[in-house]
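Marked as duplicate of an earlier ticket. Keeping the data here for the record.
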Amino acid sequence: MRILLLLFISFFCSNIYAGESMILKNGVNLIVEKREHTQTVSLTLMIKGGLFRENSNNYGIGELFSNVWLRSNDILDSTEYYGGAIYTSISNDYSEMGFSVVTEFAHKILHDLDIFINSPKFDDKVFEIEKNIQLNRIKSSRDNANSVAAIGFNKATYGNFVYSQETFGTMETVSKIGLNDLRDYYKNLLKGKDIIVSVAGNFDDKLLDEIKNIFEKVPDGESSFVMNCEGSEIKYDNYVVEEHDRIKQAKLFIGYNAPSANDKNYHAIKLLSDILGGGMSSKYFNILRKDKGYAYAVGSFYPSRLCSSRFVAYIGLQYENVEDAIKTMDSINKNIVQYISEADLEANKNYILGKVLSEAQTNSKISWYNAFFTNLGLGTHYLNKYIEIIKSLTIEDILRGADIFKKPKTIYVLKPKESK
């Protein structure tokens, strides 16, 4: 089985087409990757800024804009009519739109794409519906323990920094947003130098020229936001305990300062996250779930960010076991050399590479990866390099990455209200 996986990895590493990239006259970064063996074409539009474009008076505007923008325009219906799929969303560091469609129908949706990008409608009725949906989502999040815990942890670990905010905003801020605010947001959002357009799949020169023409109409003006990472790091150890009256088990998050995606230890910490909490063969699962019997839900994650990120270990368990779980996780992290072997390293490398390369068989994911890595400043066709670096990592690299566990951390606990 392992030999088959290695052959699979070797084959796809040698067959991912590097493609090309170009800067349009207005500053738009256009990334192209032809994959003629496929029958679809995918486009990802990534716009720099994300939550950095919002402030304490309008948190949630990006989420609301994304939904109203898509549902007010014909691009949604035409893409789905021709058997395709389309979405919009917002994240910490970027906003995005993407679609995939069968190649023979791709030309048929470009007129609607042009309107969507350059002269979109913002429908009053759609706005009211989407605003109510978003407000109801905010209300319902208060009753969802997982959501409460995630929000509480983000606030505890990021304080007033923008990453502490949820994309859907707050009742107070979203309630104040009007339709004209979305129109103003749109005018400030689409600036050529802030835009990455990534196209992947089977397409001809005519289609590519039409896509260029659409995005060359975007203004080339200056960005209306500032990307400032000051305040994104944990400065000192922080322990926060909150209560929730609708849970029976506590939820524990331990967050360590972790570097941005441009850091030399980025890849090692990605692999470290998988080794420690990436599934049922991970160290956390084996020790905290199998040996101690504390919980089923246990793991870790490390988001790729432009500013300081977090390595997060989490577990759901009885409140009386929280202190021991904290000590156990921290001990594993700080003594990782005792828990990792060459076999662990290879197994987790194969898991990550298998997952990435399986995803990379689709045009939509190739298109997304190219835009995503470009937004992180890692390059327009970074996927091949990412794969090669993961393959080359050693235990020494992992140990260097584990230095993050010597830095300040945030401990957040959401416990049942009756617990003392």
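See parent ticket for discussion. The CA atoms of residues 233 and 308 lie 6 Å apart.
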